[in-house]
Specification:
The protein is 29% helix and 29% strand. It has 93 residues and is α+β, with helices and mostly antiparallel strands.
Length: 93
């Protein structure tokens, strides 16, 4: 996991589900790379996990932000757009 963004309203974490440490031996069989992004809306206490094509689109947004630094308001507005997908309450394990 890698924290990408943390504000009073949102947290964005990039997750690599089957990532291994660099010093660890490689898997015996090829593995499908699993990754995604978790967006937590702190205000509502809900989260959404983006994977597959949603993760690809979000990664493209992040790449664009890396080239043209957005304002915090632009970031918050974009994340607000994903909160409509968030229907899972945040739970601690």
């Amino acid at each position: 996991m890698h924290m990408l963004y943390d504000s009073d309203s949102f947290v964005v974490v990039q997750i690599h589900a089957n990532a291994t440490e660099e010093s660890a031996p490689g898997p015996a069989a090829p593995q499908l790379a699993l990754y995604g992004f978790e967006i937590v809306d702190k205000r509502s206490g809900k989260e959404v996990y983006l994977d597959g094509s949603w993760a690809e689109m979000f990664q493209q947004r992040l790449s664009a932000w890396a080239q043209n630094t957005p304002t915090q308001q632009e970031i918050e507005d974009t994340l607000e757009g994903y909160t409509g997908l968030a229907n899972t309450p945040v739970s601690l394990h």
